[in-house]
Amino acid sequence: MHEGKFTLAGCCCAHLLPDAGVRITRGMRTPVPAVVVSQSTQALIEDVFQQPGLFAGLPPIDRRIVAWGRNADPVTLPHSAVLISEEALTARLQPPSYEDPVDSGWTIHTSQPPASRHHFGSRKAFAAAVDAQASACWVESLAEGWLFLIPGFLIAVGAPPDILLADSRLIAPQLRGSVGTSAEFPAWPRIADPLCAPGWLACGSAAMAFDPICGDGTGNAMREAILASAVVRAAGRGEPVEALLAHYRARLIAGFRRHLAMALDFYRAGNSGPWWEEEIRATELGIAWCSAALAGEMGFRYRLNGFELEAVG
pLDDT by residue (tens digit) across 125-138? Predict the structure, then answer.
């Protein structure tokens, strides 16, 4: 038995491949203290795990208050999400029992990448416990980075909370009392290379990590796990492995490029100065890497029909 718990992607793969003889790796990484799960991602998770009402009763996030741009005025936008820790979410989804197969033809890596990674940026994030209980998330861009506030937690990207809060006009007034000790973690986008090979696939945090500015890491981990599981089942049906892996790789790189393009729009609009310019350049390099990696691809060779892959054409 491999030590550690499943990540969200691992939970999904274990659920979709209970009898496929696939080894799904587990990890010991520190879980994210709080994730905001959108309504669409909630629906996806409940559908995959067949657990309607899984997110009932969790703290709601019904508004976003955003001041994004140099001296920008706050804008209030409707939002529909819930707040839960990564540990609590995966605990609800862990399979009741799971034994690694003895002779597995496939391994799905869901925590640590089995390959090197490309990093696009140098931004660090700091998470700290705070007293802020309103059912909203607050986002503010500043000269040296940006702040993200949700009930109970503050995320500072680019510099520690005390540095960014010193210039904050929107988020600092929402805090009651002092900011707790912050934990540091990488917030720059990164992707494993290679993403797969005959006999294994990287999935979830083992495949790529997103910038938190786009806020869809949970949904992306689920979609990757669905695709990885479909690839393994299609291989078991006799589909050509190389074609399946080429499709998997192209899909993930295309999704990573879309993420970088969204992040680039946010960073271009966020503020100005050396910190923002450096991260913009790094994101542009990431988009260029993705485009070069996809240049020789022949297009997507399969499409998902439910949880199964079927050949295109």
Answer: 999 999 876 789 99
Residue 2 is predicted with a pLDDT of 47
Closest CA to 63 of 226, 174, 169: 174
Which residue stretches of the chain have pLDDT < 50?
1-2
- 152: which 2 tokens? 């109970």
User: Cα–Cα distance between 19 and 139 in angstroms, integer?
Assistant: 44
**Residue at token pair 């609800």:** 92
Phi-psi region of 31 (alpha: psi -120 to 50; beta: other; left: phi over 0): beta
Residue 311, number of CB atoms within 10 A of its CB: 13
Cα(254)–Cα(238) distance, integer angstroms: 26
| Upper half-sphere CA count for residue 115 (Cβ side, 13 Å) | 21
3-class SS of residue 147 = strand
DSSP state, residue 76: E
pLDDT at residue 1, as a whole number = 37
CA distances from 74 to 36, 139, 254 (A): 20, 9, 33
- What is the structure's pLDDT at 296? 81
Q: If you count them, how many residues does the chain have?
A: 313
Q: What does each C-alpha distance from 219 to 4, 9, 62, 255 come to in angstroms? A: 22, 10, 18, 12
The verdict on whether omega for the bond into residue 194 sits within 30 degrees of 0, i.e. cis, is yes
